[in-house]
Design goal:
Elements lengths: L1 H8 L6 H8 L3 E5 L4 E3 L7 E7 L1 E6 L6 E7 L3 E2 L2 H6 L6 E4 L3 E7 H10 L3 H25 L2 H11 L1 H6 L2 H8 L3 H11 L1
Antiparallel strand pairs: 1-8, 2-7, 3-6, 3-8, 4-5, 4-7
InterPro entries: cNMP-bd_dom (IPR000595), cNMP-bd_dom_sf (IPR018490), RmlC-like_jellyroll (IPR014710)
Protein name: Crp/Fnr family transcriptional regulator
Organism: Flavobacterium soyae
Length: 188
């Protein structure tokens, strides 16, 4: 749990009282590789911090799933749009390795916002960070070639290249596995 506090304190200083209130609400959850954390059609009930492992977000399709995000240990994960609207998600979040999450429920988070001095600040800063990541990805999909998107992954997120199966990487950058293979041959 110290990893979570350290992450928060990069955004804002936490008092011991605020941390004790927050940490008392956390639930540890474990998922085996390939197990869903959130399934399409279900409401997200948790905001989670990945202690160990990594996950992928995708839209299930009969022929090829559409992968649109990866989240690694030391980061927050959630079907956040479903979490805040209380509406079912139209995508799935799946563990790509054995994964340990520290989770806080929607209702408990609302209590944290009401009971602590720093809760709203952390919530705002975390939301702003998620928004900036999403905006960067959307702009890359609109402005960059597939090769440039792959190069960006290679320099900005090398853990993706090392840990993620090629078919998921290809889907993430919006191309077929065969096209990704050609790009990799061209730049290596």
């Amino acid at each position: 749990m110290q990893q979570i506090r350290d992450n928060f304190e990069r955004m804002a200083k936490l008092s011991d009282d605020d941390w004790n209130i927050f940490s008392s609400k956390l639930i540890r959850r474990e998922f085996s590789k390939k197990k869903p954390i959130l399934e399409t059609g279900h409401v997200e009930n948790y905001l989670s911090f990945i202690e160990k492992g990594f996950v992928r977000y995708y839209i299930p399709r009969e022929d090829n799933d559409l992968t649109f995000a990866f989240v690694f240990d030391g980061e927050f994960t959630s079907g956040y749009d479903s979490f805040i609207t209380r509406q079912p998600a139209n995508y799935t979040i799946e563990a790509l390795a054995d994964t340990v999450l520290w989770c806080i429920s929607y209702n408990d988070l609302q209590d944290i916002y009401a009971e602590t001095k720093i809760g709203n600040t952390i919530g705002r800063l975390a939301s702003e960070g998620l928004f900036l990541q999403k905006s960067k990805r959307e702009l890359s999909l609109l402005n960059d070639s597939a090769e440039q998107r792959y190069r960006n992954l290679f320099t900005e997120q090398p853990q993706l290249i090392q840990k993620i199966p090629q078919k998921y990487l290809a889907s993430y950058i919006g191309i077929t596995p065969q096209a990704l293979s050609r790009i990799r041959k061209r730049i290596c």
